[in-house]
Amino acid sequence: MPELPEVETVRRGLAPVMEGVVIAQADVNRPDLRWPFPENMAARLTGRRILRLGRRSKYILADLDSGETLLVHLGMSGRMLVSGDPLGRFVHDHPAPEKHDHVVLHMESGARITFNDPRRFGAMDLLPSDAPQRHPLLSSLGPEPFSNTFDGPHLADRLKGRKTPIKTALLDQKVVAGLGNIYVCETLFRAGIRPDRRCETLSRKAIEALVPIIRDVLSEAIEAGGSSLKDFRQADGELGYFQHRFDVYGRENDPCHADGCTSAIKRIVQSGRSSFYCPTCQR
DNA sequence: CCACTGACCTGTCAGC
DNA sequence: TGCTGACAGGTCAGTG
């Protein structure tokens, strides 16, 4: 579900409750999510202090004092909810257990982190902290959108001559990490480019101009606490608010937001996924 | 290497 | 009310 802004929002919510704190107990309620959990995951988490909570693309990475890092992916419907923090930053009482609470971390502080994922497209794994990039899920990821290695020339080189639609290319995590369906649609609206436009027909200048737009869209979404459609919640259970600012995503037949434009937003399906765009503003 | 398809799961909603 | 089918934020394996 969650794209980079939602994952970053969750990470920021979890960090004050998890960083520097020992995992007193780990409940692992089933053998797998999308893939089997690593061997003895509960035992490898129990008693370990979390040194730092990081993020790479849509993955949350918790460095442990054992030299291992816990990798968490929220898939489409995953949530990580905090309850019962005694320091009062999270006032929520522990909720009653729910159907899809697959992993529960009981922190030494009294806080509890519940991983709930109805569709089970999420994942957890343990990897060596000193070489996270060797993990198969991380090894072929492209640059982080906010890093210095993601810039106009990189993107232009990466897309040069490709016949694939720009929408598909921006969803490709090897090109840039962290974009998903929502933020690609919003980016292309701001850029004035139709989602079905083939990369090879775009000028180098037009491709380079996408870089600051991608950063703007993502940082505005992080600022708003992500986007809540059906499932997404921040770590404290609150909704995100960026969905109120969508220009195109989910707005089929609604009026275009651009000044003076009287067109309605269109929806098309590209490689099995919906794309939304304004047929007048995007060419 | 590139481009496309189907698969993994469950829940929700629209339409009949 | 109840059934059916379409659809959902992601990503991988398999095919040509």
TrEMBL record:
Q: Which UniProt keywords apply?
A: DNA damage, DNA repair, DNA-binding, Glycosidase, Hydrolase, Lyase, Metal-binding, Multifunctional enzyme, Zinc, Zinc-finger
Looking at the UniProt entry, the stretches that span the membrane are: none
EC number annotated for this UniProt entry? 3.2.2.23, 4.2.99.18
Q: Which residues bind DNA?
A: 100, 119, 162
User: Which cofactors are required for activity?
Assistant: Zn(2+)
GO BP term, pick one = base-excision repair
Q: Name one Pfam family in it.
A: H2TH
Q: Please state every residue range assigned to the domain named FPG-type.
A: 247-283
The UniProt entry, under InterPro entries, shows: FPG_cat, FPG_Glyclase, FPG_N, H2TH_FPG, Ribosomal_uS13-like_H2TH, Znf_DNA_glyclase/AP_lyase, Znf_FPG/IleRS
Q: Where is the active site?
A: 2-3, 58, 273
What PROSITE patterns does the record point to?
A: FPG_CAT, ZF_FPG_2
Instruction: State the free-text cofactor note.
Output: Binds 1 zinc ion per subunit.
Domain Formamidopyrimidine-DNA glycosylase catalytic, first and last residues per copy? 2-122
Catalytic activities: Hydrolysis of DNA containing ring-opened 7-methylguanine residues, releasing 2,6-diamino-4-hydroxy-5-(N-methyl)formamidopyrimidine; 2'-deoxyribonucleotide-(2'-deoxyribose 5'-phosphate)-2'-deoxyribonucleotide-DNA = a 3'-end 2'-deoxyribonucleotide-(2,3-dehydro-2,3-deoxyribose 5'-phosphate)-DNA + a 5'-end 5'-phospho-2'-deoxyribonucleoside-DNA + H(+)
Q: Which domain of life is it from?
A: Bacteria
Name the SUPFAM superfamilies for this protein. Answer: Glucocorticoid receptor-like (DNA-binding domain), N-terminal domain of MutM-like DNA repair proteins, S13-like H2TH domain
Q: Does the keyword Cell cycle apply?
A: no
Instruction: Tell me the GO molecular function terms.
Output: 8-oxo-7,8-dihydroguanine DNA N-glycosylase activity; class I DNA-(apurinic or apyrimidinic site) endonuclease activity; damaged DNA binding; zinc ion binding
Q: Please describe the quaternary structure of this protein.
A: Monomer.
The record's similarity note reads: Belongs to the FPG family.
Primary role: Involved in base excision repair of DNA damaged by oxidation or by mutagenic agents. Acts as DNA glycosylase that recognizes and removes damaged bases. Has a preference for oxidized purines, such as 7,8-dihydro-8-oxoguanine (8-oxoG). Has AP (apurinic/apyrimidinic) lyase activity and introduces nicks in the DNA strand. Cleaves the DNA backbone by beta-delta elimination to generate a single-strand break at the site of the removed base with both 3'- and 5'-phosphates.
Give the protein's recorded name: Formamidopyrimidine-DNA glycosylase
- What species does this protein belong to? Pseudoprimorskyibacter insulae
